[in-house]
Amino acid sequence: MKKVIFIDVDGTLVDYENNLPDSAVSAIRKARENGHKVYICTGRSEAKVYQNIWEIGLDGMIGGNGSYVKDGNTVVMHQLITAEQCKHIVDWCHSRNLDFYLESNNGLFGSEHFEENSLPILQEYSSRKGRDTNITVRQIFPDMIFDGELYRGDVNKVSFVLNSYQDHIDSVKEFPDLTAGTWGGAGEKALFGDLGVKGISKKHAVDVLLELLGVSKEDTIAFGDAKVDIPMFKACGYSVAMGSGGDECKEAADYITDDVDKDGLYKAFEYLGLI
Q1: Which residue ranges form the domains of the chain, and what is each CATH number?
Q2: What is the pTM of this model?
Q3: What is the per-residue pLDDT across 210-256, written as a single tens digit (0 to 9) for each?
Q4: 236 and 201 in contact (C-beta within 8 Å)?
Q5: How far apart are alpha carbons 243 and 160 in whole angstroms?
Q6: Strand blocks (E) in the chain
Q7: Contact 30, 37 (CB under 8 A)
Q8: CA distance 53 to 48
Q9: Do you know which Gene3D superfamilies this protein is assigned to (predicted)?
Q10: Whose CA is closest to 6, among 273, 256, 243, 231?
Q11: In the chain, how long is the greatest CA-to-CA distance?
Q12: Rounded to an integer, what distance in angstroms lies between the CA atom of residue 225 and that of residue 10?
């Protein structure tokens, strides 16, 4: 039976320095040649899905942790933060001196001092994943715009640097009309807060796409490495966690493969008979 495969990007398809293993490219291409469909299912907006990822060959994507669904060249669903909500977030972050970036399919838009003030946090994030601590913001976000308009109506979600965990707690209270979360690397310790459309998740987006494709849950496989991927696991018939992933993700998975940079994706594709 042909499968529909959903693959998280950061920590699953690529490592946390944006390195894409040749073995992962080979695995996806071979699986598609065998008739399986492959979609990325990521927190990234489409503007953050760079050309080297599209060049692998994909059937589409789920982005913004579920706010955006694309099958081939057809946008199936796109739920946005409203312009009023975006202004509220930007003003709130400014009032608390929290640097942030807006994720839009039209680009990534960093706050005025995001490049310099987020650098130590992003280097810590890289360190927690066992990666190069000398990485720069522009290496992580090569196409980020640092002088763009911040009051926008095309935003999928917003990530902001946490000065303390209290910033996340306060964001939950400040934005009851949005979904507040955190992310931060190994151990899932929070370094960033994020705000997205209320009620969206990777699970909901997978459900929407499967209904469109006429595919049952039993014919799906999910690959991920973090807590945010657990809803995707629940939406799919079988789930695989990367060896370099978080403990909660591993506990929720049906199978644990090797690390992303140790051919983990390819090894799992072989194990599951996809290639």
Answers
A1: 4-78+200-271 (3.40.50.1000), 83-197 (3.30.1240.10)
A2: 0.82
A3: 999 999 999 999 999 988 899 999 999 999 999 988 899 999 999 99
A4: no
A5: 28
A6: 4-7, 37-41, 60-63, 68-71, 74-78, 100-104, 107-110, 155-161, 178-183, 192-197, 220-224, 238-241, 255-256
A7: no
A8: 10
A9: 3.30.1240.10, HAD superfamily/HAD-like (3.40.50.1000)
A10: 231
A11: 54
A12: 8
- Between CA 221 and CA 155 the distance in angstroms is 29
**115 Cβ contact partners less than 8 Å away, ≥ 6 residues apart:** 137, 138, 144, 146
Q: How far apart are CA 145 and CA 143, in angstroms?
A: 6
Q: Which of 78, 60, 43 is nearest to 215 (CA)?
A: 60
Backbone angles phi, psi at 216, to 5 degrees: -85, 155
**Closest to 15 measured CA to CA, from 269, 186, 259, 229:** 259
Cα Rg for the chain, rounded, in angstroms? Answer: 18
**Spatial contact of 33 and 2, defined as CB atoms under 8 Å apart:** no
- pLDDT tens per residue across span 20-72: 999 999 999 999 999 999 999 998 989 889 999 999 999 999 998 899 999 99
